[in-house]
Amino acid sequence: MKTISRMWLRTRLRAINLIEDCKGIAATEFAVIVPIMLVMFFGTVEFSSGVAVNRKVTIVARTVSDLTSQAPPATATQMFSTLNDTYLQNAFTASIAIMQPYPAVPTQATVSEVYVDSSRIATIQWSKAATIGAGATQAGLTTSSHNPGDVIVLPATLLVPKTYLIFSEVRYLYTPTVGYVMGQAGVTLSDRAYTRPRQVVCVVYNNAPVLTNSNTTCPTP
């Protein structure tokens, strides 16, 4: 009987000692918490970088539209300005500096001029696109997906009859460095910007829009 009591007492003491033994608790907690901490850390880094890149995409869209709309007329009396490929290339090239310190290689941009007729229907007058190649110091002009005459949807507040509008579109594939949370395939960021021609009524590119009144005014049918 005493033997049984002693065995039970020793077993009880061992159980108490096991419960009170805190050795290894910190290591166990660390092993449990580390994966959660890593997810939070890399998620914060990737999300913060994505927000920063998204802001730069917005600035690129606004810059391309703004530079195009600021094209000056040849004389003070002209109601139009004329663009060439060099001017547009320079406007698109500004995106390289804007995107720093992030790479500008995935940047795809388009700038177009739109005319809103008396029925408040917006149609493309001309459109040009550009991309940034790896290691390039200048943007490369490409064919736009918009064609002259295409009808596009604009915000209602911009549908002012018989007016011209410059609008730009920018797309950027943001690929996180780690890809632990967002995925290595990345996320496509995009934005649009709208501006009115600043110093003229319309901006002419590749003879569009076709000018009227002996090439002195923009058509506003």
How does this model look, in words?
The chain is of the alpha+beta class and 221 residues long. The protein has one domain. Helix content is 36%, strand content 24%. The protein contains 3 helices and 8 strands. Strands 2, 3, 4, 5, 6 and 7 form a 6-stranded antiparallel sheet that branches. β3 and β4 form a beta hairpin. α2 packs antiparallel against α3. The longest helix has 45 residues. 25% of the residues are buried.
Task: Note the topology.
Elements: H1 2-20, H2 25-69, E1 80-83, H3 85-99, E2 108-116, E3 122-131, E4 140-142, E5 151-152, E6 163-174, E7 187-195, E8 202-205
Parallel strand pairs: 1-8
Antiparallel strand pairs: 2-3, 2-6, 3-4, 3-5, 6-7
Helix pairs in contact: 2-3
